[in-house]
Amino acid sequence: MSWRCSSTTNEGLVNNLWKHGLLSTPRIKEAMMKVDRAHFSREMPYEDSPQRIGYDATISAAPHIHANALETLKEYIKPGSNVLDIGSGSGYLCAVIAHLVAPNGKVTGIDHIPQITSLSIANLRKSPVMSGMLDSGLISIVTGDGRQGYPPNAPYDAIHVGAAAMDVHEPLIGQLKSPGRMFIPVAEGGSMHGGQAVWQIDKDEKGKVTKKRLYGVMYVPLTDAKKFED
Q1: How confident is the model at residue 107 (pLDDT cuts 50, 70, 90)?
Q2: Separation between Cα atoms, residue 82 and residue 98, nearest integer Å
Q3: Backbone φ, ψ for residue 111 (5° rounding)
Q4: Which residue out of 60, 88, 90, 140 is catalytically annotated?
Q5: Alpha-carbon dihedral of residues 20, 88, 103, 203, nearest 10 degrees?
Q6: Has residue 139 got a pLDDT over 50?
Q7: φ and ψ at 227, to 5 degrees?
Q8: Which is nearest to 169 in space by CA: 185, 152, 153?
Q9: 5 phi and psi angles, rounded to 5 deg
Q10: What is the Cα–Cα distance from 32 to 99, expressed in whole angstroms?
């Protein structure tokens, strides 16, 4: 199905996601329309597939996966929400989320490779609107180990994890608000070679945590930071 969503323009890509039912919430569609994927991907930005951005990383996921992540988290990503995007990569999803939480919310993107955080900031600066969101603090991009979350801006209404974890890391659950929701791909069978699945982690008003397996996926793994020469 996903290949049918590819297009030659951002508008065409988003409309195809909508037509095929991969996107169903009007405000999410509107936010994706406002963010040109070409600012975040050097080649084939409107293909419904992951794109390389260098440093052993991709643009996080194919557009249909980003659409599903936003649909999964939509109750917790709204104006005024505080959101954490782990493995934020190119900065694309942070840009979309920023439109959903504006004007008084906040999205923090974290990646463990300094060159990638620098790249994502440069990508966001390509748009005057996104540049203004960086300057206002609506969007923050930081370098760090996303497996530990980002305590300075916690707690979060929603956490999106854009790379596969070996497990659902306890610091992330601890940084969820009550209520709050996390979207996280996790290795199955104790190994990345055993497959991966997306899990929805919910914390209710009393702090009770429930976990629900959604579907199988294939993401790049959350790993220790490598050193790259510019």
Answers
A1: very high
A2: 10
A3: -140, 150
A4: 60
A5: 80
A6: yes
A7: -100, 130
A8: 185
A9: -90, -15
A10: 9
Residues in the chain: 230
- Going from the C-alpha of 117 to that of each of 69, 91, 102, 141, 159, the distances in angstroms are 21, 8, 22, 6, 18
Q: Is 210 helix (H, G, I), strand (E, B) or coil?
A: strand
- pLDDT of amino acid 228: 44
Q: Omega of the bond prior to 221 within 30 degrees of 0, cis?
A: no
pTM of the model: 0.91
Give me the pLDDT at residue 166, please: 84
Query: What does the pLDDT look like over 61-98, one tens digit per residue?
Result: 789 999 999 999 999 999 999 999 999 999 999 999 99
Residue 194 has pLDDT above 90, yes or no: no
Q: What is the DSSP letter of 80?
A: T
Phi, psi of 9, rounded to the nearest 5 degrees:
-140, 160
Catalytic annotation on 60? yes
User: For residue 174, how many other CB atoms are within 10 A of its CB?
Assistant: 12
